[in-house]
Amino acid sequence: MRIATPIEEYIMEHISPEGDYLYRLFRATNVETVNPQMASGHIQGRLLKMLVEMMRPRNILEIGTFTGYSAICMAEGLQDGGKLYTFDIDDEMEDFTRKWIENSPVADKIVYKIGSALDEVPNLGVMFDLVFIDGDKREYAEYYEMALQHLNPGGWILADNTLWDGHVIEADRKDAQTESVRRFNKLVKDDPRVEEVILPLRDGLTIIRKIE
Fold first, then answer.
1. Percentage of residues in the chain having pLDDT higher than 90
2. Residue 203, burial from CB neighbour count under 10 angstroms (0-12, 13-18, 19+)
3. Are 66 and 88 in contact (CB under 8 A)?
4. d(C-alpha 10, C-alpha 32), whole Å
5. Measured distance CA(145)–CA(29) in Å, rounded
6. 3 pLDDT band (50/70/90 cuts)?
7. Percent of the chain as helix, strand, coil, to the nearest 5
8. From CA 195, how far away is CA 146, in angstroms rounded?
């Protein structure tokens, strides 16, 4: 289990609590999964919920479910009648994740699917107001282009891990995931269809707004 830094501990003591259900999910994620650091956690989870409350989306697309922590956080912020569609390609996590999503207080707001968002979203017939990209880093550019096609004008994209633990500024770092994150960051920066900002939260959260 990742140990919080002193400043993170301070922040968590001075923000809204995550609630017992999310606490237990985060604990189970750390005890029962191989890569628990992939879960959003308390600080980012409260930010995601608040961003949803601020942006007031009708439909949300999440690419990369993992154990469902971020999906539940965003669904907490949805208005009545809102839906969150979350996709993950890892069917080995399905039993764990589906149980936690379907037993959550916001289960009626979440549609959980196993499969490639790149393949399945175009067939949904749904336009989105918010997209959260947190899947395979090597496909971030492809997720982004697909998301823009299914995002309403003025809609938002949140992209996680866009500083990639600082590796994006390491000149000698040439692995596929780091190069893909760099490619994504440049693609967004150079795209006149959007405006964007990167927050140094965890290992980078980019907020992108589709201009028109």
1. 90
2. middle
3. yes
4. 27
5. 31
6. confident
7. 50, 20, 30
8. 17
Closest of 152, 34, 133 to residue 88, by C-alpha = 133
Contact 208, 162 (CB under 8 A): no
- Give the span between the Cα atoms of 46 and 16, in whole angstroms: 7
Strands 151-160 and 128-133: parallel
Cβ 108 vs Cβ 39: under 8 Å? no
Residue 193's CB is within 10 A of a number of other CB atoms, namely: 13
In angstroms, the Cα distances linking 68 to 16, 73, 86 are 19, 9, 9
Tokens 């190069």 belong to residue: 179
Distance CA 112, CA 8 (A): 30
Helix (H) or strand (E) holding 133: strand 128-133
- What mean pLDDT comes out for the span 159-166? 95
Give CA–CA dist 167/179, Å, rounded: 9
Closest by CA position to 100, among listed 9, 3, 17, 31: 31
For residue 87, the one-letter residue type is: F
Q: How far apart are CA 87 and CA 98, in angstroms?
A: 12
Give the mean pLDDT of 82-105: 97
Contacts of 18 (CB under 8 A, 6+ apart): 26, 42, 45, 46, 73
The C-alpha angle 189, 195, 201, rounded to 5 degrees, equals 80
